[in-house]
């Protein structure tokens, strides 16, 4: 199959179609319009086979996750997603794999009303790069650098599930069939918290998505904001499946350090704290307060029932070159 046959069969004209796309797939560039009084948020992420996902992973999950991690970045900034472009590198043409890949890609883009507007296909090692773009009203962008001492730290959903799912897939963790299905699906199909991100625009003081692990990503907020933090490990939101699989102590370690959850970690000042429940009421997503920002720049403390808790030897996933 030639490149343009591949694009025409699996990617051109599929999925959600937006009115703000003037020229989509088929020309040298896509042409779009940006609504008045909106800023454009742009993010790019690359997933490489054998590093970011098992090459034996279902094609649907690979596409789904490639889109989800980019939408999660937009969510962390409070942006409403609009368009994506895709650069896809494949070692060979497998039409069944491509059909499943396209299904996973369009399942998520349709749900969030996002249109695929262009990209590229090449012969090479399995990898995919997605650039996602979305809209933020002026002065509404959520950032890492705006947390203040006294702000409360929250996280969405439950933490550690995707890391346990990875451990199950790699053969390092054994559990029941029911727990396996839940945790592996949390690894394969993360939920980008887009609705939460837009709901937090006027409530949160800072925000980041949890891609590399809670401690690692919270550390980015602390560094950018020049603050410290206290995190209470007994308040970490843990799923029943994770604690049944690992036990409470190990589950807490995964919640602190395992990546790929793509939940949001955000801060809220005391004045806005009372508005948080109202802000999130339409999202059906639970947010849990796990600690507080302090004035001790760069100092991150863990506590268990107000007693010191040892810091894990590794704070999260680190990219190596």
Automatic annotation (TrEMBL):
Enzyme Commission number(s) of this protein: 2.7.4.16
Domain of life: Bacteria
Record-listed Mg(2+) 4 binding positions: 28, 43, 73
Domain PurM-like C-terminal, chain residue ranges per copy: 148-297
Transmembrane segments: none
Pfam families documented for this protein: AIRS (PF00586), AIRS_C (PF02769)
Residues reported in the UniProt entry to bind ATP: 119-120, 144, 211
Additional observations: Reaction mechanism of ThiL seems to utilize a direct, inline transfer of the gamma-phosphate of ATP to TMP rather than a phosphorylated enzyme intermediate.
Record's protein name: Thiamine-monophosphate kinase
């Amino acid at each position: 199959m030639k490149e343009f046959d591949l694009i025409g069969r699996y990617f051109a004209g599929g999925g959600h179609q937006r009115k703000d796309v003037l020229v989509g797939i088929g020309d040298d560039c896509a042409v779009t319009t940006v609504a008045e009084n909106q800023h454009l948020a742009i993010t790019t992420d690359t997933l490489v086979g054998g590093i970011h996902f098992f090459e034996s992973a279902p094609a649907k999950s690979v596409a789904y996750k490639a889109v989800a991690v980019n939408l999660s970045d937009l969510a962390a900034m409070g942006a409403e997603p609009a368009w994506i472009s895709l650069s896809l590198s494949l070692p060979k043409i497998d039409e069944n794999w491509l059909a499943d890949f396209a299904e996973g890609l369009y399942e998520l883009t349709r749900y969030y009303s996002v249109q695929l507007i262009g990209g590229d296909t090449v012969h090479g090692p399995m990898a995919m790069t997605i650039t996602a773009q979305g809209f933020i009203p002026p002065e509404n962008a959520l950032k890492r650098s705006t947390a203040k001492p006294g702000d409360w730290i929250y996280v969405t959903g439950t933490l550690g599930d995707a890391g346990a799912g990875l451990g199950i897939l790699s053969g390092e963790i054994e559990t029941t069939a029911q727990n396996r299905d839940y945790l592996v699906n949390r690894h394969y199909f993360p939920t980008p918290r887009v609705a939460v991100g837009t709901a937090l625009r006027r409530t949160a003081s800072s925000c980041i998505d949890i891609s590399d692990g809670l401690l690692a990503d919270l550390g980015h907020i602390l560094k950018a904001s020049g603050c410290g933090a206290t995190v209470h490990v007994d308040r970490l939101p843990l799923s029943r499946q994770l604690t049944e699989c690992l036990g409470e102590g190990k589950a807490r370690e995964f919640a602190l350090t395992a990546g790929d959850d793509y939940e949001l970690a955000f801060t809220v000042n005391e004045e806005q704290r009372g508005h948080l429940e109202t802000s999130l009421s339409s999202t059906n997503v639970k947010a849990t307060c796990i600690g507080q920002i302090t004035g001790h720049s760069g100092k991150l403390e863990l506590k268990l029932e107000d007693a010191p808790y040892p810091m894990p030897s590794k704070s999260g996933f680190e990219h190596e070159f």
